[in-house]
Amino acid sequence: SLSAVFQEYLRHLRLQDFPCGFGSWNKSCLNGHRSPRRAQPGQKGAVLDEETPEALLELLRDQHSPWALPPDCSAQDRLLREVAVLAPELIHGTKVYQLLKSLRMVDKGVEEVDEGVLQFQQLEELILSANHISRITSANLPRTLKVLELCCNTVDDLQDLCSQPPPELQHLGLGHNSLCGPSQDKFLTEDFWPNLISLDLSFNNLTDLLGLVSQLCTLQKLRILVLQGNPLALIPTYRGFLVDSLPKLSILDDIYIWPDERQQFQGLARQPELSRSEVRVVVSVGEMKGVPAPSAFQHQDTAEAPVITCSYFVTYEF
């Protein structure tokens, strides 16, 4: 579950170990909780020298420090480590859940978004890319959520996600999943996502362009849409039909829609017959290697000469 993965993530950060946490090395913690206890000469268990929070932070930030985080660590990692120095009481118990507005758990083996996620009462951004999530229950998502990224999972049904979706959600990322149309189109309307600005449905198995557009038209705040990688994107009039059907759209498939392009496709939305769900693929084989040249089989023009016939079978897979 996501809660279990998050707890393991906190353990991996070692927020209780030097230079983080409530330790005898943190001068501010000692002043705030107890007086430093100095060991007598020869006595075992001597405490470490006290350091100011600023000095401890320098140990986290200096790239030459043995306690420094790797250069490619996330902003979330740095935030938690530094808070564990400046205010270690905030990373104890459930207080850490109130600290984060953005949670990024990428490629951590998450299979379930469980009820424990509701403890993140301030969470606005949840990034769960490259996990193993096939279904997600919206009742387990904080109501404060504005960004939900589920790219590269195995989501194949949106019904549970749309039962009680976060009302303020502005971006929904479902690229590289297993959504099949047209059964999922009905969940992509303003009834479920009244504040959606950005929607990524790329690289799924959506096939019904007309049906999908009829639902997306209800998303009055939608400005960014990604549909590339779906079978419906192979339809010749795909881009033009979308540009004309969604007049408020600003970016389609990561390409800005300029006024002259919108003018060029004007009226295409009123000709749905041009957007048939059919595709013709023409394959041209420019060169073949390893086939004997015809000259090798040329024979003399006599009745006694044998007739040599060669046949070849070529397959093209895509």
TrEMBL record:
For this UniProt record, give its keywords in alphabetical order, as a comma-separated list.
Answer: Leucine-rich repeat, Repeat
Q: One cellular component GO annotation, for this chain's record?
A: cytoplasm
Entry's InterPro entries? Leu-rich_rpt (IPR001611), LRR_dom_sf (IPR032675)
Record's PANTHER family? LEUCINE-RICH REPEAT-CONTAINING PROTEIN 51 (PTHR15454:SF19), NISCHARIN RELATED (PTHR15454)
From the Swiss-Prot or TrEMBL record, give the protein name. Answer: LRC43 protein
Print the organism lineage.
Eukaryota, Metazoa, Chordata, Craniata, Vertebrata
Gene expressing this chain: Lrrc43
